[in-house]
From TrEMBL:
Keyword Membrane found: yes
Signal peptide bounds: none
Presence of the UniProt keyword Kinase in the record: no
This protein's name: DUF420 domain-containing protein
The organism's taxonomic lineage, starting at the top: Archaea, Methanobacteriati, Methanobacteriota, Stenosarchaea group, Halobacteria
Amino acid sequence: MELRARRHVPALTALLSVVSLALVFGAVLGAIPVDRVPRAPPAVLDAIPHVNAVVSALAIGTIVAGVRAIRAGRVERHRTLMLASFGLFAVFLVCYLYKVALTGTAAFPGPEAVYRFVYLPVLGVHILLAVVCIPLLYYVALLGLTRPVAAIRASNHRRVGRVAAALWLVSFVLGEVVYLLLYVVY
């Protein structure tokens, strides 16, 4: 299986990216049939943004630690931390999609000027980076998981991984800013 996947990393990246982005846009645009999704109690739905803020903070920590580990030559620690980051991202995404599918996106409760000149630009960049990161993350994860450690250096993992990690980190940080603006500041 690993050898077959190794030969098809770009195709698998494309397939996983299309499916993931279809789920994201389907949830945000209300295309997921809500009557087929089990509904959690309101308290659970209300807790999801706060849980996701904690998950995002943990992901920021694991991404930074993963980058530091690879710079120190600690390949197995890097792999563990980046897989943990990917797992945290998956938890975040499932929780986010569940809440958005059931309740829609959150309305900004603050002043119009902050909405227009702070919140929307931050949200826009966060969303753009999140969308761009999805195929990059699948690509570097598949490269890293389908090759022996010695063969990874000969792949694009290192070059693309640097870009992916940086964009992913910025996206998570901006997501925290969005959370703060929606649920703490206003």
